[in-house]
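Exercise 7.
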Amino acid sequence: MNKDLTVGNPQTMLWSFCLPMFGSIIFQQLYNIADSLVAGKFISENALAAIGNSYNVTLVFIAFAFGCNIGCSVIVSQFFGAKDYAKMKTAVYTTLISSAVLCAILMLLGFLFCDLLLAQMRTQPEILSDSALYMDIYILGLPFLFFYNIATGIFSALGDSKTPFYFLAFSSISNIAVDILFVKCFHMGIEGVGWATFLCQGISCILSLVLILKRLSQIKTDKKTVLFSSTLLKKLAVIAIPSILQQSFISVGNIFIQSVINRFGISVTAGYSAAVKLNNLVITSFTTLGNGVSNFTAQNIGAGLSSRVKNGLHAGLKLVWCICIPIVILYTCFGKYLLLLFMNATSAEALLTGRQFLWILSPFYFVVSAKLVADGVLRGAGAMKPFMAATFTDLILRVVLAFVFSSWFGVIGIWCAWPIGWIIATAMSFYFYRQMNYQ
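Solution. The predicted structure, written as tokens, is:
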């Protein structure tokens, strides 16, 4: 069901809209978590390290899909809020066509250069072939990744956050079952993990696209819908490109950080691979909630109700901080047991690495979650330059400090770079927010 976010109590509307989005991203992250879990428990520590090593490369592709999601979501939200349904449909079709072209280019580049990139990351020889195999299967599934993310962005723009949740809940649980089936019963190893994700994500993508096209056909317009508009493509690009650059640079930064981590051996790489999945589960969840704030902001600005933006920010902060409390307690006090889902108790060095990572980073989730909510307002309002400035500051600090601190303090120094970047970037995001006229 479509939902108008320009009416009703802002906190009630935002929470009811964002909580299903939070559930959706939890299930979406289960794809990657399930891969690492099955690899670490049922194949080997090397398999866990191989998937974790590939994960930072996959984040580059996810960055492009995420940017298409955001660009479409913000523009469609604005047209939906303004009740301009003809342009809204044109924005959707323009996104689908342009994203198909972008996806094809990325697939070609992926097949040509991913092996070289894995080698440049100092991937250990023991895991290089498995990392490359997993990446090849992942690249084949890029169309599913792209079009599913676009469909999710459209659902969110229409105020419907529940439908993607239902799709993901089913497909993610299925993915775990198929992972285990392919690895335990068919003995397919890393290849089985990759094909299970391909299959389940494909089903989710196809179902969501069918439903979104049906939903759009039910929205009546006075004018004939144009299938492609270069003018709207430019508007989409203004939002999408900074988001793509943000996520891409973060992913590239993580690749540099991964190259530093790989120097410390396979056990450290495996421990980081498990812990960073838990960390990314949280960060991606907060980013998704920030996207909800973007949709809220965009709809209300489109409807000329800018005064509601500040209320949306406050409601978003309350929501993410309520979520932070149990997560921080869970990660700091019970992180060992979560990490053991991915590895065996005999992996002592890997387990210690993962616990140290969670101990250092998790208390600062209160900081980074606030940044991502403020970023949601900036993005929804189209203030992309300030948004980019804060994001790149965070990234540059984390990468540079990871290199410097690792030479001084060892692997713990790498983990300490994260909170410093988060704190400074959060201060910048709120400074830029306060310069806007929504106080």
